[in-house]
Write a structure and sequence with these properties.
TIM Barrel, alpha+beta, 12 helices, Immunoglobulin-like, 8-stranded parallel beta barrel, elongated, about 600 residues, 6-stranded antiparallel sheet, 33 strands
């Protein structure tokens, strides 16, 4: 190859190219090194010999070049060379003969099991790719794990467990009604940590490269991921990445990583940890000005001008919904609060389940965690599940328990969809996927955590129910208006746009034991009433008088005790224990 290497510039980190000039800048770890399999670390001792191994990806040749001591600035080495076709070459950095990992090294490929960094990706045809640019109040987010989403044979896709497999499920996601996907780590993470399989992908990684194993062709993982984004955009769906940076590391490197995913891969947003990321800098970065930034908190980054693309993940919503679903005392007030939770200044992402806990089916089937398969004596994972097994731990053949679980699943879906924030769906919950009580499947790269698509046939009723709820929320604007509810009479029909009730209209029982609640949404021509009964017993609700005394009709009943379309002639309805009834009225 005989490349003529010379001293380069120490900034920016990684590879930068202009005209035929290539610059590579990388930081040496602090007296640490890692073997080529990326499995162990050891302390470096003695003199350090730094070398660059160049791969000719076309002719399959390698050349190792020892880097001169004067080619570094502090801990940063920088080299440069001229080359008309940089996409032909890859590289590794070696320290005393051991291949180093570069957390922000850019795109990679695998050659004989070793990680090789690329100088440049081939040109990709983005055609007329355009970001959907959806507002938070328009979003229905579906969170998935690329490998687990389609790895099981029942997914019936080509390239199971890959970016290509996920693309083939776009029609399914469109039918469900979602318009955005959040991807758990898809960057090149360590597959083994603490001698365990790192299935979820959190922890040390090369944060700037799509994981080669997630591509049908591992040598073209970058193109595979770009094709995924392009296909999702073509269907009006946004793509977000969950990136959990380490606590250590400079903000500028993390910003460079985020910019890279936006500029090179056209992603629409990120789910970040405020504990490891300087959110104010991220939100004010000019390159990321149209990128959604989501986190559990923002550490005081409250500039209103930055809020429109800021989304708060609400664990408090999850806790409050689960307590009310279970029928806990003193849970109605928190339910009302989170049901109304909405801001014009930022998004509010709300969910009943997520990857760090029970699936929805397990939430109604297990009281406690069952994480024995993780090898930690069932001590890992949260013990605070706020779940209820409905009378028997795990799978049951008892008809009354099966019926109650069916109701609770429907109840949970109504809570997960009908609020004033952005609903997030955890993949598989829409057809009753189970992890058999494991609430921390971080190390389970097997059938336990892969979505079991065979359940879509068995539990098709859940999918149809969720699809119906999403369609209803999209169609009925008064259930989720553009502006937050004022709880006043905007339509001048004698009814507030939203109001809370108890078993008696216009009166919410404030006793801690009350588990009954009514929510009315009134518009100019129509009103909706949601009757929640989380008591164990049947309860009677007196319904509010609607404008012009029009009659209330049942839309659905999660206990299936009241037939859809039936009219409440006396203005009262009986609601079964642990069930919800949706009613509507058209003003006459």
């Amino acid at each position: 190859m005989a490349l003529k290497i010379k001293k380069g510039k120490p900034w920016p980190y990684g590879v930068s190219i202009w005209e035929n000039h290539i610059n590579l800048a990388f930081e040496l770890p602090e007296k640490k090194k890692m073997n080529s399999g990326r499995r162990t670390r050891e302390t470096v001792t003695g003199e350090e010999n730094i070398s660059l191994r160049i791969y000719d990806l076309v002719n399959h040749e390698t050349e190792e070049i020892s880097l001169e001591e004067t080619w570094h600035f502090g801990q940063v080495y920088a080299i440069a060379f001229n080359e008309k076709k940089p996409e032909k070459y890859g590289y590794q950095v070696l320290q005393d003969g051991v291949v180093l990992e570069l957390p922000y090294g850019g795109e990679v490929c695998r050659i004989k099991g070793e990680t090789v960094y690329l100088f440049q990706l081939p040109e990709f045809d983005w055609a007329e790719d355009a970001a959907p640019n959806l507002d938070f109040d328009e979003l229905y987010i579906y969170k998935l794990h690329i490998r687990g989403f389609t790895k099981q044979a029942g997914s019936k896709v080509e390239g199971r467990g890959t970016f290509e497999g996920a693309v083939q499920k776009i029609p399914y996601l469109k039918e469900l009604g979602v318009n955005a996907v959040e991807l758990m780590p898809v960057y090149d993470f360590h597959e083994v940590i603490r001698e365990q399989c790192n299935y979820w992908g959190y922890g040390a990684a090369n944060f700037m490269a799509p994981k080669p194993e997630y591509a049908l062709n591992p040598e073209k993982a970058g193109d595979s991921f770009k094709e995924l984004v392009k296909k999702f955009h073509a269907e009006g769906m946004e793509v977000y990445l969950e990136i959990m940076f380490p606590e250590a590391g400079f903000t500028e490197r993390k910003l460079a990583c985020l910019r890279h995913w936006v500029l090179e891969y056209h992603v629409d947003g990120f789910h970040l940890s405020a504990g490891t990321t300087a959110m104010a800098e991220v939100l004010s970065d000019p390159v990321l000005v149209n990128t959604k930034i989501m986190s559990e908190n923002f550490d005081g980054s409250q500039d209103r001008n930055l809020g429109k693309r800021r989304g708060i993940y609400h664990n408090g919503f999850q806790e409050s919904m689960r307590r009310f679903l279970r029928g806990d005392e003193d849970s109605a007030a928190a339910f009302m609060n989170y049901n109304l939770n909405r801001s014009t200044e930022q998004g509010s992402i709300q969910y009943v389940t997520n990857n760090n806990g029970f699936t929805l089916m397990d939430l109604v089937s297990y009281d406690g965690r069952h994480n024995e398969a993780n090898g930690e004596n069932n001590l890992d994972g949260t013990p605070w599940n706020l779940s209820w097994n409905c009378g028997e731990e795990g799978p049951s053949r008892k008809k009354d328990i099966i019926k109650l679980r069916r109701q609770q699943i429907k109840n949970a879906w109504i809570m997960n969809i009908f609020h004033q924030g952005t609903p997030l769906i955890y993949a598989g919950d829409e057809f009753g996927n189970t992890q058999k009580g494991n609430n921390n499947a971080w190390c389970q790269d097997n059938a336990l955590s892969w979505l079991n698509w065979n359940l879509l046939t068995k539990n098709g009723w859940i999918f149809e129910f969720v699809k119906t709820l999403i369609e209803l929320r999209k169609k009925e604007v008064l259930l989720h208006p553009v502006l937050p509810f004022g709880m006043d009479d905007k339509s001048l029909n004698g009814m507030p746009d939203m109001s809370f009730h108890g078993k008696t209209p216009w009166f919410v029982e404030d006793a801690g034991w009350s588990r009954c609640l009514g929510c009315m949404y009134a518009g100019e021509e129509k009103a909706w009433y949601f009757a929640y009964n989380m008591h164990t017993s049947k309860e009677e609700f007196a319904l509010p008088r609607s404008p012009k005394n029009s009659k209330w009709k049942v839309y659905l009943d999660t206990a299936e005790a009241n037939e859809p379309g039936i009219e409440m002639k006396d203005g009262r309805i009986e609601v079964e224990g642990h069930s919800i009834v949706l009613l509507y009225t058209l003003y006459e």
